[in-house]
Amino acid sequence: MAKPLYRLQSFLRRTQLFLLFLGVAYIMAGSVLLLQRASLLVTQRGATSPPLSSLPSLPSPPRALGMPPVRVGGYRGRNSRIMARGQEYKPGSPLDDRTGARWLMSRNLEIRHLQRRWFHSLMTEKDMSQVERSTPRRNVPHKGSYMGCFLDNSKERALRGSVSTDFRKMTSTMCQDICSARLNCTSSVYLECTHSGYQFAGLEYGSECYCGNHITSLRVRDEECNLDCKGEKGSPCGGVGRLSVFKVEDVLPGQRRYRNVRYRGCFREPENSTSTSLVHVLQPNLTSQFCIEACMNKEFPLAMLRSPDCFCGYATPDFTLHEPAEEEHCSQRNTTEASLPSTLQHFYQVYQTPVQDSRCTERKFLPEKSSSLVALSSFPGAGNTWVRHLIELATGYYTGSYYFDGTLYNRGFKGEKDYWKSGRTICVKTHESGRREIEMYDSVILLIRSPYRSLMAEFNRKCAGHLGYASDQHWKTKEWPEFVASYASWWASHVLDWLRFGRRVLVVHFEELQTALVPRLRSIISFLNATVSEDRLLCAESNQDGHFKRSGARRPTFDPFTPDMRGLIDGLIRAVDQALRDSNHTGLPLEYLPR
């Protein structure tokens, strides 16, 4: 009798352990399934199948935002601003019911839903791009000669030519390719191409690339360059305050990349030329090509030619390059100085070399957390990234973002990864426009761009990324009319909401910032309660393009805006213009209504 009881007791013990094991396995399996399902739902969000396989998915517009074409009256006078006094447009008229502030406020909920879809589509694009890019890393053979590990700091750079950043895929080969880029020989500046780019390429912190023709610091032990490249594990990419330097090797003609030299114009010699002209080269048969190459070799951004003299230097408060002289004053540049009239001996031909002005490249987080939260708000496609680049150059402080864009972070916007309410950035990028979101900020820089250009820029970004362009095929699909029908209303609602709920508002027009950069940038810096030198503002102007400017002004081969689209957009422009005036701001520039 005891033996069967013992067997039963042993069986029950084993069964208890077995059931416990089954329970744990069941819970773990259920957790894995839930995680997989949640990931699938996030991936499928916004992933609607487009009519063409080459087109990315675009958020469908809310039905309530579809509007009939709007008749827009003409304008009286030739003022530099738009006046809401058209023959058929009056505030409170039936036209105003469909495009004015009241109508837009009544559509606030639909526009908020559109903003949510835009945000989720942005996040989905980033997630998908990360999945697509997670390919196995292969070893890239090194090229060039490794020169060693050198000291480097923000005040005394080892290489002073130019700097670029990529926090995701920087390699020694990529850095050398950047530094070996040739000058653009198709420009009228050159008769032939002889310059071979920078001689040295240096890497620091695993992601920063510096170029130069001279190594100006001491060499240290190679072990101190102990950080791997972000895009190539096992390859040295400098360290903290340490630069891994390579001698750039020449490349075949078919593989060369070119950089542009820009002619700035003819300028009068400043009274105090010592601070401007830091290097003087004397050449009997001086040419513009020789002067530019000499200044590039000395790593200066400006080459100033006055035959037989060549001067290299920077833009300064005494030599701002904002007041060009008549070109005829420099037309006799090939004549010897002794035979020139005295009035022509004091003018320079000025060229902008590809050398980066290094006086404003250093950036950092705020030394003390700010108690004031400043928004840099704009409609998508209005140039927010470009203005962030200018603010960082001028102030030396990082800007933050309400979102996280890995592409921007990888290209040097370190504040992109910082919590937007941390107080460590000088301002925060946002495209939000709801009352609750607006009232979280103490002040705002409201950036406005022509809706025609903003809509095209955002559509280009959605179809081809930050630097690409949509093809004619994209513009001809039904996605484009739906995009305009929904996003045009968002452009107007965004401005109206910030004017209504913003506590302290500085309105900045993108087009005015392009034509008068230094004065407009100075007003932005003053609004941010920052103090910067005039030299740093001029440096920001010199480096204004940055890494996120689309090359050229590529447009579709046809006008993508139909008469109905223009009627809608023009009516919204009038409503926003009137709202700006009612809020004691200047109205919209006249160019917002193209003729």
Automatic annotation (TrEMBL):
Pfam families to which the protein is assigned, alphabetical: WSC
Annotated spans, Disordered: 48-71
Gene3D superfamilies per the UniProt record, alphabetical: P-loop containing nucleotide triphosphate hydrolases
Keywords, ordered alphabetically: Membrane, Repeat, Transmembrane, Transmembrane helix
Transmembrane portions of the chain: 17-35
Protein name, as recorded: WSC domain-containing protein
InterPro entries: P-loop_NTPase, Sialate-O-sulfotransferase, WSC_carb-bd
Domain (WSC) ranges: 143-249, 260-354
Assigned protein family: Belongs to the WSCD family.
